[in-house]
Structure formats: C-alpha cells, structure tokens
Amino acid sequence: MASKIYFICEHYTVFFAILWSFWGLGQFSLNRLLKLPVGDSILSATFALVIGQGIFIVALQCLAVSGLLLYSWLVALLLGAGMLGVLEWRRRERHFLFWSIQAWQKSSKSERYGFLLVMMFAIPTILAPLSPPLPGDELLYHLPHAQQWAQSGRLGINEWLRYPWFPYNYNLLFAGAYVIYDDVFTHMFNMLAGLLVAIITYRLGAKYFNVTIGVVSTIIWIQILRGDFGKANVDMGVTLYVLSASVAFYWWINSQKDRRWLAISAFLTGVAIGSKYQGLLFLPFFGLALVWFDRRVSSWLMATIALLIPSLYWYLRNAILTGDPFDPMGGNIFGFFDWDHRDYVNQFTDLKRHSGFPNWLLWPAVLSLFSSSNRKSPVHVAIFSLCTYTVLIWMVTSHLPRYLMPVFPFLALLAAEQWCLLFKRAFFFLWGRTTSESIYSIKNIAWVIIFMAFIISSGAAGKRYWSRIATNDEERREILKAAIPGYSVLEYANANKMGRIYIVGGLTDAIYYAPHPIWGDAFGPWRHLDIVSNEPHKFAGELSKRNFDAVIADGPLCLELEKNPSFQKYFSIVFQNEGARLYRLNKTANSF
After folding, report:
1. pLDDT for 159-177, tens place per residue?
2. pLDDT tens digits for range 219-251
3. Quick check: 557 and 582 in contact, CB under 8 A?
4. Beta bridge partners of 550
5. b or e along 30-58 (b: 16 or more beta carbons within 10 Å of the residue's beta carbon)?
6. Cα separation of 573 and 584, whole Å?
7. Which residue blocks in 66-108 are alpha helix, DSSP H?
C-alpha cells in the first residue's frame, strides 16, 4: 500500500510540474502575445493548457528533427515555460483559485452537487495511467516509435514498425515522457487529454445548455472512454484538439470576427491533423464554414499558416521521401511505397471487420434531428451541423467506433439533452401532471440514479486500476505475464542475443516488449502473407532469403507448424513457455 502511494505521488509530482509549464506557455500566449481574454476562468485555464501543450508539441518536433530530443533540452524547455507560468501567476490580481472559490460561492445547490459528482466520477481515472503498457495499439506501434525516438534523441523513420510514415504529433509527448521519466508516464498525457475534454464538455454544457446536461454529458464521456485513460493512444489527443479548435472557431464567429480566435482554431486543428490522418476529415467542414463567414484572402492566409505550423513537417516529409504525403493511405493516387495494393485492401477489410456503432449512451443524440432547439439556438446549430457532417463521413468510410471519437463530446451533449428529456417524459407519464414537488422529485431521482451509476462503475474501475499498479520490476513482470501470453518468450529473447528475429502471430501486438529491432507485420515489406507458410521448407526458405536467424511465434501457429514431420529439419526450439515458442533457423547446407 505505502509503496503504491509513493509511486503515485512520485509520478503526479512530475506530472503537475509539466502541467504548470504547459499552462505558463499557453497563458503567456493568450495574455502577452494575443492579449485575448477567454472570460470563463475554468475554460481560460483549460485553453491555456491546451494551447501550451500544442506549442510544446511543436517545440518537441523541432528538437526531434534536429536530433536534440535529450533530457537537458527538455528540462530547459520545461523550466523556461515554467518561468513564464510564474510571471503570469504574479501579474494576476486575482488567481484561478480566487475565481474558483467565488464561482463556488455563487453556484446553486444543483451546480455544487453536479460538480462534486463529476469530480467523484473522474477520480478513478487518475489511477488508470499508472499501469505498465498493456496489449493493444500502444504496444504495437505507438510506444515502440516513441521509445526509438527517445533512445536515439531524434525523429527517425522506424521502417520495421507498423505505420512508420504516419503523422505523430501527440506521440512526441510519449517520447518526451520516456526522456523525462518512464513508459508508465506516457499514459499521463492520454489521461490529461481525456480530463481536459471532460472539463471543456462540462463547461460548454453548463454555459450553453444547463448544469444538469453539463454533468450528464461529462459523465457519459468519462464512462464510455474510461478504458482509454490508461493507454498511450492518440485518439483522445486528437479529440481534445478537434474539440478545442471547434470551440475556438465558434468563439471567432461570435466575437465580431476576432481573427485571433480563428488563428488559434487553425493552429489547434493543425496539431490534430499532425497527430492522425483522421483529423483531415474536419478540414472540409471548417473550410466551408470559413467560406461562409469570411472570404478575405488575409484571413485564409493567416489560417493556413497557423494550420501548417504544427502539421506541415509530416506531410512534406512523406511527400519528399515516399511520393505520397498521406503514406500509405494515398497509395491508390500517389503510388505505393512500403505498402502494396493488397495491404491497402486488407487494411480496409480489417476496419470493416471491427466496424460497429459507438456506445449506446450516445444513441439518443439521434433524437436531436427532431428537436426544435436545433433551429433556434446558434450553438445547437453548430454542434448538430458538425456531428451530422462527421457521422455521415464516418458511415461511408471506416465505420469504426474509435474513429468517431473526435465528436463524442458533442454527441454526449446532444445525447445528455435527450436523456434528460426522456427521463422527464417518463416521469410525467408514470406520475401524471407536474407540480413543483414532482419537479423536485425528478431532480432527486436523477441525482440518485447518477450517483448509483458512479458507485457501481467507478468503484469497480478504481479497484481494477489499483491492482495494475506495479511499483517494482517483479510486480510489473507478474502483471505483464498475466496480460501477455508468451511474455516469458519475449523476456528470453531480450536476454539472449538471437540475431535477426522475425515475429508472427498474436505476439506482434506486444512487439514493444520484444528485442528491437524485430520484423514481421500484417502490412508492409515484412508482411506475413509473403513469408509465413504452413510448409516448413517454404517458410524457412523465405526467412533464410531475408537473412533471419530466429522466429518468435504464438501457440496456435506453433501447433500448426509442428504438425509437419519435416518441421524439425528446418527449425529448432530454443525456448518455449505459455504456448509461445522461440525457434532457431537451422541454416545447414541442405536445408533449403
């Protein structure tokens, strides 16, 4: 218990120091460079964090490209940003804490209960990031890329990993986390994105709808994405920047066309499209909206420059080195580089296999189609328009629930509004006409239901997250062995040099824990379709032709391969455990 508490405090001390630097950098930009007041003190602090983090990502990009992604440079950057935070704090007559206390004193009982409930619901998420990296996309390519950049100190191209040419703005934070601390710390930035989205969603709901809708929409967001708070993925980061860019764009429209907000919106959009290709889907929407509201060449030029600052590097690099600025997704147009047409087809086949609909808590948002408020309220029109555009594009492209995440906060607001209406109508249907007492009862019943949901969901989640905290190597090893079948084989391969290793099967999802570099993937030049065969002599021949010395395979594939009596002629088992095998390739004169 004590060791876990110390582990938590240690990580969060470093984390809050970095948050201070982000806030200082963003607040300096808002106050000194742009001289742009936000108004809402909570939203002001949140936007300062988002903008500061975005600027920090651009700085990381410059350092990594220059080969200076080193501890000394990062500490100097954080200290400089932290000093800006001190200056901004000292010049404020009344601080964030004062405004928070004042806002609390002025708030109603419902607002206080709502805020406390959201805080209680979010508390377990602070434990989620403290587990070791576990199977999923973070082990497949997010963290391996970040680890390689951190170890080399530069933004190299790791062609043996999946998606080496993707834009990786948000992943640079993971690389920075490696340099500053450890791989557990990489999760903190995903959690930060999730919590900042929660704060913005809550404030938007309270400001443009009502406090109850703000509370319910925030809880929906946390509930449906709770499992992502402890991962080093980028979808939450993209969501944060799309959400912030959308809010800044709306403020630009409603601030007598103050183009500073347009520049901020474009910059935040640039961070998003520099983090994941899916961010590009929002460019046509923002472009059409900009045409509608402002056709000045100067506005377009300013927005374009702000957009390109955080994103140009990735697309220009790809265009120069691969001929496809969107490699590998633009292969059908620009020609394929590391992928071929089969990979392209297989990628979209895989997306279809995992297609589905988002969490059922968001489904009532569809009822907004029939809501008269969509025609009366400007904010409803803006939210509904963005959600409609995104959902239509999503339905005809990937149909993967995760790819709809950037508009989950807006869908949560629409859904929360409809959930409240449905609950109110159900109450009226069951209990008849409304009175002041019945309305009071509705509110009390609603709070009890939400509170019970918190007890059931958050309590179980918090217990699960606590059990995954590893404070030493042995605890970490036990957690990883339970989560990754065949982890002991990866351990052995790391401890014993086996030469050039090919990996195949389910263990490719845990490639982060394998010896690096290691080759083998569903896509690209090391694709399994070209190399793996049930006939041992063909499999061994392909491996030998590519100068491999050993193979790591999971249980099902091992059983299939070993059925052939000639298998032992070409492969020797070096180590086996938990259904996985490490084979040495027998390179005798008559083997192939």
Report:
1. 999 999 999 999 999 999 9
2. 899 989 988 999 999 999 999 999 999 999 999
3. no
4. 501, 584
5. bbeeeebebebbbbbbbbbbbbbbbbbbb
6. 6
7. 71-91, 96-106
